[in-house]
Design brief:
2 domains, Rossmann fold, alpha/beta, 400 residues, 13 strands, binds adenosine-5'-triphosphate, CBS domain Like
Length: 400
């Protein structure tokens, strides 16, 4: 049973809807099995199916120089050469990245670093000057208006900082908007609206109008509207930035829960490293249109590549940020394996538990087991190895 996020109480709560379907995801194990069986082509296909977004050498120059740069590119100049000759300042400068199914990929950077331009190239709102974007295998730049509409209607959905809801319409009308555009049957639409409102904790609120809701509730409606179409890619452009810190944290937690349950693939833009670290599987830091460094939050904190990244991660509480699984995976020689442990033999902590929880159990024995609920694997390490790893992370942070 899918667990709905904590419902917002209403005077008269509507009865809960049918259980929302869990979407199928191509299991990593299947790709591994095919590879092991020597079926290289099938394995390559399986891993391509895992890739939801591929961005290759994306470049964007706004304004008059763009046409001249395009002409230079057509004559065989590289993007760097063309931009140099025209003395242009690109909003995006040869950015490449790849997003896998089921991950939350965070893009962050200071204002003007190119985050929104990148997102607008992904959803086809603007055309890049150079490079390619493909979403679920479809090259966005090659789509005509009809194919682009299809891609936006069926494959991706957006959640905006400004909510972008229709303020005088009901919650229900807002949530079913994408389904109505797809001309889906009204009964199926109503059923789906009931399901997603339950998922975001708003069952019972469907007849309220948007202007009657708080900011946090409006963003739940925005999320429900995006989930209603069951997109392969959810793009969230600073979705929680306008909310107060408590609501923001609650919605981050709820997004994480939904992501785990629905295995959503999310491209998430934020200014805030603490937010990126809480929710991101990987984080890309951008500056002046360039990709400066990509990695997990732990990578970026432990090994910032320059002062710009160091400034982003400077005030991060490492203990809050890291989870038990990430910490033990960084211990030299540690390994997650399928080995079963005798019941009660060791203290066990979930891999996604915060580090504080791991530290809390260390006094109960000389070894601790960290269990990854998704893969069913566990990693056993000694308590002294855990302390050494924490020490080395702090030392790295100080040195750099
Ligand atoms: N339509 C446009 N015309 C001209 N320049 C633009 C346009 N859109 C963006 N830019 C420029 O491109 C660069 C990147 O802007 P972009 O909005 O992508 O940054 P951002 O990281 O999303 O910033 P913010 O966090 O403030 O939204 C900036 O220098 C901006 O001025």
């Amino acid at each position: 049973m899918l667990q709905a996020i904590r419902p917002i109480p209403t005077p008269a709560c509507a009865p809960s809807g049918a259980e929302p379907p869990l979407r199928s995801v191509l299991p990593q194990a299947e790709a591994r099995r095919l590879r092991d069986a020597g079926d290289a082509q099938a394995a390559a296909d399986a891993s391509a199916a895992q890739e939801i977004v591929r961005i290759s050498n994306l470049g964007k120059v706004f304004g008059k120089p763009e046409a001249r740069i395009r002409r230079r590119l057509a004559r065989g100049e590289s993007f760097g050469e063309a931009v140099g000759h025209e003395q242009a300042r690109p909003a995006l400068d040869q950015v490449s990245l790849s997003m896998s199914r089921g991950e939350i990929y965070v893009i962050m950077g200071l204002s003007g670093s190119g985050k929104s331009t990148l997102v607008r190239c992904v959803n086809g709102l603007i055309s890049p000057t150079a490079g390619q974007v493909s979403v679920c295998g479809t090259p966005v730049g090659e789509c005509g208006p009809a194919a682009l509409r299809e891609l936006r209607m069926r494959r991706m959905a957006m959640v905006f900082q400004s909510f972008a809801l229709l303020p005088h319409m009901t919650v229900e009308k807002n949530v079913e908007f994408g389904l109505a555009l797809r001309k889906e049957d009204p009964a199926a639409r109503r059923r789906r609206v009931g399901e997603v409102l339950e998922m975001v904790g708003l069952d019972g609120w469907k007849s309220h109008r948007i202007h009657q809701l708080s900011g946090g509730m409006k963003q739940r409606v925005g999320l429900a509207r995006a989930l209603a179409t069951d997109p392969e890619l959810l793009i969230m452009d600073e979705p929680f930035s306008a909310l107060d810190p408590l609501i923001r944290r609650t919605l981050q937690d709820e997004l994480l829960r939904l992501q785990r349950e629905l295995k959503m693939t999310i491209l998430f833009v934020t200014h805030d490293f603490a937010e990126a670290a809480r929710i991101g599987s990987r984080i890309l830091i951008m500056k002046d249109g360039r990709a400066v460094q990509e990695g997990t939050a732990t990578d970026l904190v432990a090994r910032p590549c320059n002062d710009y990244v160091r400034a982003f991660v400077a005030n991060v509480d490492r203990m809050q940020m890291m989870c038990a699984g990430e910490l033990v995976a960084g211990i030299p020689g540690s390994q997650f394996t399928g080995a079963r442990l005798p019941r009660g033999a060791l203290v066990e902590v979930a891999a996604d538990a915060p580090l504080s929880q791991l530290l809390g159990v260390l006094r109960h024995g000389a070894f601790v087991s960290v269990a990854d609920g998704r893969s069913g694997q566990r990693c056993v390490v000694s308590c002294s190895e855990v302390f050494d790893r924490i020490g080395s992370l702090y030392a790295l942070g100080r040195e750099e």
